[in-house]
Amino acid sequence: MLRFGLFGTGHWASETHAAALAAHPGARLVGVWGRDPAKAAALADRHQVPAFDDIDALIEAADAVSVAVPPDVQAEIAVRAALAGRHLLLDKPLALTLADADRVVAAAQQSGVASIVFFTGRFHPNVAGFIAAAAAAGGGWQGARVTLFASIFQPDNPYGGSAWRRERGGLWDVGPHALAVLLPVLGPVRRVAALAGPRDTTHLLLAHDGGAASTVSLSLDAPPAAVLSDFVFFGEEGVQELPTRNGSAVDALILAIDQLLAEVDSATRDHRCDVRFGRDVVAVLAAAETARAEGRTVTVAAPG
To answer: By C-alpha distance, which of 187, 194, 240 is closest to 212?
Structure first.
């Protein structure tokens, strides 16, 4: 039984992370920390565990951390937890700067802890199966087209009040979901061009290793009638569309916890969605942000 400390009290933390930890037979929630002590106390009471007002005290009480806070806050918690020898169940994006992402990777490698970054779609079995089959197909893919248009700034949306999402937009919030599928199939991204569009839309042109190219359009503020999730690969074998996710986000996170437990028991630390992969996604996002701001093509920073 792995003891988890939960960091976060928002909708995603309470309805996905806490729910998955409570449902998993191999996990035990031992405490909650949040930036709002009242919310932390309420969520902790709901699960009959203590609320902590000190980050390091909860890290000390746990074997692993489950983190659902803004990415810049997450990076600091992840570094402290990893250096204390605690395993990491993190959210996307790993961080909001490449320097912070590199710090998390360095801390995890120094301590040898297991890590998973929860790119939700990667843990839905039908999506994971499609990615595995597409990646195994070899060099036949020429590219992909992705459109991820969300509309979260509506009165009933639980994520509409998120300050970091308002500041960073679709590039940093839904962009990681696109990259988490593109990278294992088409290969690492080496160069990025980007343009800003209406309603804080970002349009990317990505050059992958091996010559494939992909286009990605992202928004969190699309008109409600224009919400869209469209993901298509094309190549020598024709056209294939990414399947719609089966199951809930809680189901996917339960599977992620399964895989983290397997990583903890393994002699290797090579999960396909570990902090190193999370860092590679941040590198593409950071390059895209620069490309959009400066109107030029940007080379993606290679791992250190």
So the answer is: 187
